[in-house]
Known about the structure:
Strand content of chain B: 15-25%
Number of domains of chain A: 1
Structural class of chain A: alpha/beta
Radius of gyration of chain A: 20 Å
Helix content of chain A: 25-40%
Shape of chain A: globular
Order of helices and strands of chain B: EHEHEHEHEEHEHEHEEHHEEHEEHEHEH
CATH architecture of chain A: 3-Layer(aba) Sandwich
Structural class of chain B: alpha/beta
Number of strands of chain A: 8
Radius of gyration of chain B: 21 Å
Helix content of chain B: 25-40%
CATH superfamily of chain A: Thiamin diphosphate (ThDP)-binding fold, Pyr/PP domains
CATH topology of the largest domain in chain B: Rossmann fold
Number of strands of chain B: 16
Order of helices and strands of chain A: HHHHEEHEHHEHEHEHEEH
CATH class of chain A: Alpha Beta
CATH class of the largest domain in chain B: Alpha Beta
Strand content of chain A: 5-15%
Shape of chain B: globular
Bound molecules: thiamine diphosphate, iron/sulfur cluster, magnesium ion
Distance between the termini of chain A: 69 Å
Number of domains of chain B: 2
CATH architecture of the largest domain in chain B: 3-Layer(aba) Sandwich
Number of helices of chain A: 11
Oligomer: heterodimer
CATH superfamily of the largest domain in chain B: Thiamin diphosphate (ThDP)-binding fold, Pyr/PP domains
Largest sheet of chain A: 8 strands, mixed
Amino acid sequence: MSIRKSRDWFSPDYMAQKPGIEATYGLHPLDEYLRKDRIPHIWCPGCGLGVILNAYLRALKDSEIAPEDTAVVSGIGCSGRAAGYVDVDSFHVTHGRAIPFATGLKVGNRDLITTVFSGDGDLFAIGGNHFIHAARRNVDFNVICVNNFNYGMTGGQAGPTTPSEAKTSTTPWGGFEQPFNLPAVAAGAGAVYVARWTTYHVEQLIKSLTEALKKKGFCFIEVLSPCPTGYGRKVGLKTGKKTMQHYKENSEIKNGADPSEVALDPDDPETSIIVGKFVDREAPTFQDVRGKIFGEARKELEVE
Amino acid sequence: MSVMKEGTYFMDGNTACAEGAIAAGCSFFAGYPITPASEILERIAQRFPELHGSYLQMEDELASIAAILGASWAGRKAMTATSGPGFSLMMENYGLGLMTETPCVIVNVMRGGPSTGLPTKVAQGDVNQTRWGTHGDVGVVVYAPSSPQEMFDMTIQAFNTAEKYRLPVILLSDEMVAHMTEKVEIPSKEDMVIMDRKKPRVPPSEFMPYCPDEDLVPPMANAGEGYSVHVTGLTHDEQGHPSVDERTQNMLVTRLIDKIRKNADDILDYDEYKIEDADMIIVAYGSVYRSAVEAVDMARDKGYKVGLLRPKTIWPFPEDRIYDLARKGTDAFLVAEINFGQIVFEVERCTAGACRTYLAPKMGGSIHTPEEIFDRIVAIDKGEIPPFKE
Ligand SMILES: Cc1ncc(C[n+]2csc(CCOP(=O)(O)OP(=O)(O)O)c2C)c(N)n1
Ligand code: SF4
Ligand SMILES: [Mg+2]
């Protein structure tokens, strides 16, 4: 068997002669939502991203949302590649800017059920400011944050969610910063829906995503995800399976827990990983409030 | 939409810009306040309720430009407005807009730089930033208005070019033009040309989102229209899919540049004044153009054969015209700009040694007076000033 260089995978020549995946493997139940000609994806064996994408697509299907009514926006990173695989209007924008792009898209066309699918670094380091402001505005879209505790795509560097003292490629002697507790950031900034699951909690994740797709306002779902390549191998979680085992053994479901009390120490076997739906409240969205104010303005101006 | 009624108004440049955008069909604006551009935001915020438009005040300029790109893909005509410090932040997604061929308009009302510089005063220091500020090779379109009237007209023009050629177009104004109040004629709706992006002519199954027509511009399917477009800032093929293939990179980037280069005749715009018999030609744009016109008249009164070439589009630049003039008897070009020499490099490049190029620099804070330019003309004539870079 000849070895394919990664650059050949997307070359027009390869694409032209590629054997039909369908002929070999049959149809996948979520094929109608996938750009089949983009599969195989680029993610590593054992990566959690496939599980999360699968859960999102299942939620779309369960919610009976037509592909043409939905849009996905991603930033840059392994997680950001999700936009390239979903067969809906999908936008793979610049690093950190998925949220403001999605804000324009959603406010530009309020009928588009919009989801931001991106990584912890993208959403909370370079994009952190946009995150808190979108939550504050309560713009009506969902944010799925794949938290793999590092910058996977660029080679496992430390980021804003990396546990303190963890060894990564840029903290070879151990880290010295405190990570964000993401549900607390989201809830504090004004998100109306906040949940955290791991790739082990597939059914709960699908349920949360289904709720978020239906809910009006800024919904945030953090998903802890194995990254054996970038992070796991440096912290003793060498395979995806081992990480899943770790999630299984150490997670504790606490729906309704106070987000400020769910900070993680995912590598410490002594403390549990608190998962669950933490916030689910009602608040007028950006568009509700703006519609009201502009409506009153029109009355005052005596125009339609 | 209630576009302002046909008629003659007394308006400042920023207000005229906002009204031009509204006339062009802009229904989405995202921005972050900054002197001397804030009046554009304020006017839009005031006017959008009656127009059912979307005004968003974002957390910064990184977000402002990201939002207008998103809105453009939602099918809206979208604009943002800023000045130097914000414009620097926008360089990132200016590149994304060029790469993904997203129509929109970015207004930069120039003030003194570098950095926070002279917030309330005029400069022209961002000219080359509009051309080379974002990384990678790009083809760009930049308009430079010289009056409130042109703030109105060129904003419409910028939207038309953005829609026709699918790219973020820059309206490069300056503090003087933006804050000056003058007569502005608003034409009737019938007299305004308003253009919209080309739409797909085939069903979704056959649609190639980045397959260009003969004019090198691909038709655009907006989100929500059932075309399931994929848009990425990565190098992409005609299907819109990312590719690490050198051939794809070559095809895409070449087309993005040729899209402007090969359509330059259609996009390029400049004015000439008393140029026929001129020995010396002044090149000036934006607010300085106004002083330059007077300087030419002063010089002509004193018997100097001086003319004026004024780029209305800075990019594309009137390169062929300058090349020809340099070869057909012009002795010298004098570039007057409020910077330490930016467009002068272009003029020097276009004359290609066929005649001399001089600079009348200005460090920002005010425009050249006509006398300053006139004195320069006299000094050059007497051989008291060396050509640029000598
Ligand atoms: C402005 C900018 N800076 C840096 C990068 C390089 N970069 C690409 S992906 C990435 C980190 C992604 O991390 P995360 O969002 O956690 O995604 P993951 O790969 O872990 O899924 C970085 C720093 C970039 N593309 N753009
Ligand atoms: S580097 Fe990590 S996040 Fe990226 S594909 Fe590999 S396992 Fe997944
Ligand atoms: Mg990550």
